[in-house]
Amino acid sequence: MPDADFLQREFPQDETLIYLNHAAVAPWPARTARAVRDFAEENARSGARDYRRWTEREQQLRDQCRRLVNAPAADDIALLKSTSEGLSVIAEGFPFEDGDNVVTSDEEFPSNRLPWAVQSRRGVTLREVSLQTEDPEAALMAACDGNTRILTVSSVQYASGLRLALERLGAFCRERGIVFCVDAIQSLGAHRVDVEAAHIDCLAADAHKWLLGPEGIALFYCRPALRERLTLHQFGWHMLRDAGDFSSRDTTPAATARRFECGSSNMLGIHALSASLSLFEEVGMDEVEDRVLANAGYLMGELDRLSGVEILTRREPARHAGILVFRKTGRDSAELHADLNRQGILCAARGGGIRLSPHFYTPRHKLDKAIEIISTTL
What we know:
This protein is globular. The protein has helices at residues 4-10, 30-46, 51-69, 83-93, 114-117, 136-142, 166-176, 224-227, 267-283, 285-304, 333-342, 364-377; strands spanning 18-19, 77-80, 101-105, 125-129, 148-154, 179-183, 202-206, 218-222, 309-311, 324-328, 345-346, 348-350, 353-356. The protein is α/β, with parallel strands linked by helices and 378 residues long. The chain has 12 helices and 13 strands. It folds into 2 domains: 4-20 and 284-377, CATH 3.90.1150.10; 33-282, CATH 3.40.640.10. The longest helix is centred in the last third of the chain and has 20 residues, at 285-304. The two termini are 36 Å apart.
């Protein structure tokens, strides 16, 4: 268990700032800032003299990502630039036929809606299912039929905080030969995700939210059987089987997930994300998840004490991760959001209310201060 000194060293944030916006863009740990600074200084001194060592860090990051999601092999991991790119790789590359359909929810962030919606040009129907039911998994499964090729969902919904039972959905898809695709950007770094246990065929998550990394680099997991079915739409030297042979005319893509990385690696992002993931490995995802849930649960309990406050996020621990959404009866949420930001609470207006997203390291005294400010601002 990390002690207070450890957390203060890694997250030396301004005491006047209460950062409850990890579901948007998160601050970096101190080790990540050092990794970026060291990489920049090395470039300034000696350029790419030690590029081979950089590629070793790249492979190290693939291994870290593999462990994070329990992928069978590091070869199943691609390092892309965003969640949107990963989901687009699947949507654009999948061998759809006229009359096929894709099932998703009606609460998805555009990253997990637009790539599928535009497949209408290929005769593919997007079925958007309401999750406003006691059993959202049952609703999603009921929308699938013999023409459903992909079920794609966010593991945690960005605007409501609803956490889905991935294992249940994955087992359903595996039994029926439906590809199970997961946008994990609101869960990786907040709670454990196991692609093997949940029968996930493909998963994408950018680094800049709960993973405490930079924008512009994302983890993309794809099972071997699926990646062999996908048509490639981006091409470049890095995705080739013989990527180091620049004189070769062989256009065979790599058998690994590297086939989805068409150009040069984002070495700055690789160094940063590797540093961030080292923090999660040091603390342990069990501890991280427990603390995230404890912080979200504490805020729920304290907000319940305030008059006229309605919690919009489902309360069961299995139904949320780090996102908590509330609203105040009779108060415009956009105006309340602006007031809270002016008083140092970094949060977001989402889902018809105020979205709070504390991380595992968020200290209790800052949660108490947030509740005090919210109570006087309502």
